[in-house]
């Protein structure tokens, strides 16, 4: 029996998927709140969308039925890594421009950055498991 097919590997994959799903939900909620706050404080158009952010690869979900789980993980990993870089840049710019004047926004950015970093870790772990064998599609 291959290592990826062992009960412990399957349990680890299931645990990573479950925690990743919970983290993604929390992250989505926090990103929506952060965007609302940012738009309000910057006086931007409230119809701003995060569906397409320059520098972050698109999810291309219309092709997912043609891809393997590993291919989907790799695309998501690339997108979240790019998102993490952009968030880190935003946080640095925020600190330089506003300093401590808007600490709540800075804390929210830092929190989302931490969540995205954790999600990247989860995707990397799932990808490692997928490359060791043929995990179940979840």
Total domain modules: 1
N-to-C terminal Cα separation, in Å?
Answer: 21 Å
Estimated radius of gyration: 17 Å
Q: Compute the number of strand runs.
A: 0
Task: Describe the fold and architecture.
The chain has 138 residues and is mainly alpha-helical. The protein has one domain. The protein has three helices and no strands. Helix 1 (7-42) packs antiparallel against helix 3 (103-132) and helix 2 packs antiparallel against helix 3 (103-132). The two termini are 21 Å apart. The model has no long low-confidence stretch (mean pLDDT 79).
Short description:
The chain is mostly helical. It has helices at 7-42, 69-98, 103-132.
Topology:
Blueprint: H1 7-42, H2 69-98, H3 103-132
Helix pairs in contact: 1-3, 2-3
List keywords for this structure.
mainly alpha; 138 residues; 3 helices; elongated
